[in-house]
Amino acid sequence: MTVDADPVAELPDPRDYGLAVVGEEEIPAELTSLVAEVRSLVDAVARTRAGAEELSAARAAVAAAAAQLGDGPRHDVGTMVRRTWDDGRVEYGTLTNAVSGPTNAAAPPLRLETAPEGGLRAQVRLNGTYQGPPGLVHGGWLAALLDQALGAAAVAEGMPGLTANLDVDYRRPTPLNTPLEITSRVTGTERRKVSVAAEIRHDGEVTAEGTAIMVRLNLPGDGGA
Ligand SMILES: CCCCC/C=C\C/C=C\C/C=C\C/C=C/CCCC(=O)SCCNC(=O)CCNC(=O)[C@H](O)C(C)(C)COP(=O)(O)OP(=O)(O)OC[C@H]1O[C@@H](n2cnc3c(N)ncnc32)[C@H](O)[C@@H]1OP(=O)(O)O
């Protein structure tokens, strides 16, 4: 179904709407490795069997690190990160996005790329901090990963919007600590509604799939109304 398709040629610049923007390339390598270290720390804390002395020492070390950054300069909450694809297209997402924010250690290490067959693709490995049933990924996180991939597929086609409706089917248990493939694409548009579909696969088999209706942002002058 494609009615009134007209994707916007270029995404709106968030700065025109009062939001700060940082380029992905401006994120210091030291911050990227700090984020990776904090992710490992969260997993280690979640499963540690260390004794009281080691735990107290670790707490003090973490408190010292928090104090080091605590009073320093911070980006505003709504800050967006700009990514420029190889073909010159520009994309924006929130810097601390809960599912794929590049500086958010609470987010899985998800980086969606354009797929040769169209749409987006990513590979991600989820550690024990994303656990639901024993050894398996929590269904809420699977829904969040699908939602992000679905929203990003619409953004990649120049149609940023909000999720109005999300349907998820869990087909097979999704294991932790193993590569998962996520794919997503736009399947149709109708006025401001963008239909999108996404899958999560393990070993080539679909374990979860989702469809959504993203309603395009109704921004003055972007043709989205
Ligand atoms: C600020 C400028 C920034 C520019 C930045 C540039 C690019 C990047 C920007 C953003 C990035 C975006 C996404 C990135 C990826 C993220 C993935 C995560 C996504 C989320 O985490 S997002 C959070 C959760 N999400 C919400 O927080 C939405 C809350 N909600 C609402 O804000 C409203 O509810 C809204 C806006 C959805 C609609 O409201 P509205 O007033 O604008 O529009 P309206 O009601 O007229 O609906 C228009 C047409 O959608 C149909 N429709 C509406 N609702 C429907 C439903 N539930 N099911 C089926 N169809 C539905 C109607 O039936 C009508 O259809 P029709 O054309 O056929 O009449």
TrEMBL record:
<comment type="similarity">
    <text>Belongs to the THEM4/THEM5 thioesterase family.</text>
</comment>
<keyword id="KW-1003">Cell membrane</keyword>
<keyword id="KW-0276">Fatty acid metabolism</keyword>
<keyword id="KW-0966">Cell projection</keyword>
<keyword id="KW-0472">Membrane</keyword>
<keyword id="KW-0053">Apoptosis</keyword>
<dbReference type="Pfam" id="PF03061">
    <property type="entry name" value="4HBT"/>
</dbReference>
<dbReference type="GO" id="GO:0016787">
    <property type="term" value="F:hydrolase activity"/>
</dbReference>
<dbReference type="InterPro" id="IPR029069">
    <property type="entry name" value="HotDog_dom_sf"/>
</dbReference>
<feature type="domain" description="Thioesterase">
    <location>
        <begin position="135"/>
        <end position="207"/>
    </location>
</feature>
<keyword id="KW-0378">Hydrolase</keyword>
<protein>
    <recommendedName>
        <fullName>Acyl-coenzyme A thioesterase THEM4</fullName>
        <ecNumber>3.1.2.2</ecNumber>
    </recommendedName>
</protein>
<keyword id="KW-0809">Transit peptide</keyword>
<keyword id="KW-0963">Cytoplasm</keyword>
<keyword id="KW-0443">Lipid metabolism</keyword>
<dbReference type="InterPro" id="IPR006683">
    <property type="entry name" value="Thioestr_dom"/>
</dbReference>
<dbReference type="InterPro" id="IPR052365">
    <property type="entry name" value="THEM4/THEM5_acyl-CoA_thioest"/>
</dbReference>
